[in-house]
Model the fold of this input.
Amino acid sequence: MTTKIVIIDDHQLFREGVKRILEFEKSFSVVAEGEDGSDALELVETHQPDVVLLDINMKTTNGIEATRQLLEAYPETKAMILSIHDDEAYVTHALKTGASGYMLKEMDSDELIEAVKIVAEGGSYIHPKITHKLVREYRRLANQQINSQGYQQPEVQIPLHLLTSRECEVLQLLADGKSNRAIGETLFISEKTVKNHVSNILQKMNVNDRTQAVVTAIKNGWVEVR
Done:
């Protein structure tokens, strides 16, 4: 099955680069391009894509506002934000608007393809660098609540009842904000093996994506936030 994609970004060279990367994946087809968020509704109406990639900063209508308008009119379409900003405020705003993904423009081609696949299949994707920041903020707020209530935070309990020891290592590295490639380099295993471990973790934890896995692990005290 072909995943139809629309790219909206005000830099033509960047759009062309993203298009070339995505079309390396045989199941992807870039059906249209736009240069401003104001193009989104018309392009989606005409081409009925599965996924729309939107730059966050555009001249007339930014990616977040375009996402809001787009999902109000076409709620089945998946919107993904492309950004140079890794600030939590941008990410939170985008997710509240309904975006299914938030990607940094610094990500490599394999990560981009993986992210679009995840979102096209109904999951969500946040760049690992941002996931780590969100996790640290979550833990900071949790610690504030713990301290105000006067009890100690429990020690990390590695979930060996649920995951293998290797999967526990991978889960911790996901919480550290590492990409699949970086995890492979840390553990001296192939990126394909990492992907298999991540898939097993998601299945065993009954979550849809790596971000949910990390948040669940934090809530249960299964990983450290470093």
Summary: The mean pLDDT is 87. The chain is about 55% helix and 15% strand. Residues 128-149 form the longest helix (22 residues).
